[in-house]
Write a structure and sequence with these properties.
The protein has 140 residues and is mainly beta. It is 13% helix and 41% strand.
Length: 140
């Protein structure tokens, strides 16, 4: 196969991969004022009022927030509506449709409805990537 054909195939496959990558057409950005957090849109207008004790970037349409120190974490959508109720001691962003959450010092994984896909059973947990996530129990 000559180099021209190989180059054309690479360009075609890269174009397909980029076309299938979902783009966030209306991103929101975390802002902070006086130790509280909210979200603004691309134009700099407040999209979700400053009201959270902590707030993470949106990932897969949801963001981790909490309303006060020692309060449980929940997930909101881009309208600011709570989608998954505050019930987690700690929480991470969604990746590959799952998010690591902690209850009573044990980590598990929830889906976007808030149901456990993997029950809390780990001492630590990371985000999914290529179908795998790092977990730790004891020294392993």
């Amino acid at each position: 196969m000559n180099r021209y054909v190989v180059l054309c195939l690479v360009v075609v496959f890269c174009s397909i991969a980029l076309a299938e990558t979902p783009k966030d057409t209306k991103p929101l950005f975390v802002i902070s004022k006086d130790g509280e957090y909210g979200y603004i849109n691309r134009e700099g207008k407040i999209a979700i009022p400053i009201q959270f004790n902590s707030a993470e970037n949106f990932s897969e349409g949801l963001a981790v927030v909490n309303f006060g120190e020692d309060e449980p974490y929940s997930y909101i959508d881009k309208s600011g509506e709570i989608i998954i109720d505050a019930q987690f001691d700690d929480a991470r962003s969604f990746s590959e449709g799952l998010a690591a959450v902690s209850i009573d010092m044990q980590w598990g994984f929830i889906d976007k409805t808030g149901k456990f896909a993997i029950e809390p059973q780990f001492d630590e947990a990371g985000s999914f990537s290529d179908g795998l996530a790092m977990v730790k129990n004891g020294d392993l």
